[in-house]
Amino acid sequence: MQSQSSPDIVRAAAGERRVPASVQRVAQRRSWHWPLVAVRMAIDGGLIYLAFVLAYTVRYQLRLVPLVSQESDQPLAAFWGIQIGLGVTTLLVFHIKGLYAQPRGASWLDQMIKIAGGVLTSVAVLIMGSLLTSPVLNSRLIFALFYAAALLIFGLERFTVKRLRMLLWRRGINIRRVLVVGANYAGQRIMKDLMERPDLGYTLAGYVEEEADDGPWAVPMTGHGYPARLGRITDVDDVIAAGKIDEVIVALPATAHNRITDVIERCQRHRVSFRLIPDLFEIRFNQVQIDALNGIPLIGLKEVALQGGNLWIKRTLDTLLAAAVLILVAPIMALLALLIKVDSPQGPVLFTQERVGYGGRRFRCYKFRSMHPDAEALKADLLLLNEASGPFFKMRNDPRITRVGKWLRKTSLDELPQLFNILCGAMSWVGPRPSVPSEVAQYSDWHLRRLETTPGLTGLWQVSGRSDLSFDDMVKLDLFYAENWSLGFDIKIILLTIPAVLKGKGAY
Predict the structure, then answer these.
(1) What is the pLDDT along the chain (508 residues), one digit of tens a residue?
(2) CA 200 – CA 165 distance, rounded (Å)
(3) Residue 7, SS3?
(4) What is the value of pTM for the model shown?
(5) CA-to-CA distance for 417 and 333, rounded, in angstroms?
(6) Nearest C-alpha neighbor of 123 from the set 98, 145, 97
(7) Which among 157, 118, 139 has a CA at the least distance from the CA of 55?
(8) How far apart are CA 50 and CA 55, in angstroms?
(9) CB 258 within 8 A of CB 11
(10) Which residues lie closer than 8 Å to 375 by C-beta, 6 or more apart?
C-alpha cells in the first residue's frame, strides 16, 4: 500500500511548517514515478512488436506450422493496424492490472499470471474488433502464435530483469531503507527475512516498538544479531526524518487500530510509503458480504466457495490430472518401492492410515512408508519431544524415520500414492492437510470448518512455511483458501508447490 497524498495535504498535515529536506528528497524521488512507468511501457511496447514479428515469421516465413496454405501469404505491412491495436490494448490492460505498480518483491509467477491474462484479453478484443470491421480474419493462426510468442518473450524478459535486480541488490545498489513498526512475532518475522535476504532489495534501518513489545525475542536472527531499536511508536516522526527511511512496514495487531491509523498518518505526512502486515487471526474475516434489510446494512461472512458447481469442476479436473500423472510417475513409484524394501525389508512398502476428510468422513490415506514398522508403538515415548503446536506431532530429527524415509519426506515423494486417494475422490490436488481422528478430536469449534473442504495433496499452508507454521496459522490459511477458491488459485498453489518442495523448507 502506498500513500497518495498531495503536497497540499502534506502541508496541511504539517501545520504549514517547513518541510524537512529529507521529506523533500522523498517527494522528488516520487516525482520520477510516471517517467519510469513510461519507460517500462515503451519497453513492453517493443516486446509486443517483437512477439508479433516472431509470430509472423513462424507463420509466413519459416512455415513451422503444418497444413497451412501458402495462398493466403501476406506481407508484414498488411498487419500494421493489428500490431498497433495489440500494442495499445495490451499496454492498457497491463496498466489496469497493476503491472506497472507492482512492488519490487513481486514474484515472477505473479507477474506472468497477470501478463498471460492481459495478453489473452488483448487478443480477444482484437479478434472481436477484426470481425466487426471485416467478416474474414487476415489470419486466425497468427493470433495464437502471437500469444505464445508474447508469453515466451515476456517470461524471459521478466526473469532476466528480476535476476539483474537481485544481483544489484546483493551489491547494495538501489536498496530501500525500511523501518518496522512493532516488535511482536509478525514484526520479528519480517525483520528476520529482511536481515537474511539482501536479495529482496531492502535493508533494515531498525524498528520502533510498543510498550507491550518488551520481552524476549521469539524469532532468532541466526547469526545476524538483533536489529537496531530506534525508539517507541511516538518517535516515528523523528526516526523517519533522521534515518532517510524509504518505506515503513507496520506490524501491529488489528486491535491496535488507533496506533495503526496514527502511524499511517505520520507516513503520509512525510510522504513515505507504507505497508501493513495483516493480522493472521483476521485473515478469515476480511472476506465479508454486505446485504441490506430495509435499508439497514448487514455484514456477514462469505460462504465457502468450494460447493455446488465449483466442487464438481474441481473434482473433474482432479480426476483427469491424477490419472495422467499416475501414468507418468508409475516407473518412479516402482523404483521408490524397491528402495524402501531394500532399506527396511521388515515392513510393507505402503503405509496406510485412517484420516478424516470432507464432512468428517473417514478414509484410508496411502503414503510410501518412511518410518520403521514399530513407529506407532514408539510414538508414546516421544510425545514430550513434540515440536508442533496444537494436535499435530512433529519432530525435526524423529528417530523412527528410516534413511530412505528421510529423503522421501524431504522431497515429499512419500505422498505420491495419495494420487490413488485423489482418483477415488477422498482427496484433491489442493486442499487442507488430512488429519487423523485423534487430532480432530482435539479441534476447537472453529477448527472444524477446515473439514468443509476436501483435503489435498498440497495446499496454501504447504507453500507458506509447511511445518514451520503453527497449527492455528495453518487452519487460518485453510479457511482463507476455502473462502477464496478459484481455478486460478489452485493452479498458482500447484506451481508454488514445486519450488517449496525443491527447497525442502519446513519438511520433516
Answers:
(1) 344 443 343 333 333 334 344 434 434 444 445 677 888 999 999 999 999 999 988 888 776 655 555 556 678 888 888 889 899 999 999 988 888 876 676 778 888 888 998 999 999 888 887 776 665 555 678 888 999 999 999 999 999 998 898 888 888 888 888 999 988 877 888 888 888 877 778 888 888 888 765 556 666 665 567 788 888 888 888 888 887 888 888 888 877 778 888 888 888 888 888 888 876 545 544 455 555 454 555 545 556 666 667 788 888 889 999 999 999 999 999 999 999 988 888 888 998 989 999 888 999 999 998 887 776 666 665 655 555 555 555 666 677 788 888 888 888 888 999 999 999 999 999 999 898 898 888 888 888 888 888 999 998 887 876 555 677 778 888 888 887 888 888 888 888 888 777 766 555 4
(2) 9
(3) helix
(4) 0.57
(5) 8
(6) 145
(7) 139
(8) 9
(9) no
(10) 400
Domain boundaries, the chain: 7-17+175-277, 33-170, 309-503
d(CA 284, CA 40): 36
CATH code for the structural domain at 7-17+175-277? 3.40.50.720
- Reading the block at residue 62, the C-alpha cell is 519459416
The secondary structure of residue 223, as a DSSP letter, is: T
Q: Rounded to 5, what percent of the chain is helix, strand, coil?
A: 55, 10, 30
Q: Whose grid coordinates read 499416475?
A: 326
CA distances from 154 to 43, 92, 113, 175 (A): 11, 16, 11, 25
- Check: CB of residue 269 under 8 Å from CB of residue 14: yes
Helices (H) and strands (E) in the chain, counts: 16, 11
Grouping H, G, I as helix, E, B as strand and the rest as coil, residue 210 is coil
Alpha-carbon distances, residue 344 vs 122, 374, 399 (angstroms): 57, 12, 14
Secondary structure (3-state) at 111: helix
DSSP class of 20: P
Cα angle value 226/227/233 (rounded, 5°):
130
Single out the residue of 350, 498, 502 nearest to residue 411, CA to CA. Answer: 502
Cell numbers placing 6: 498531495
CB 182 within 8 A of CB 207: yes
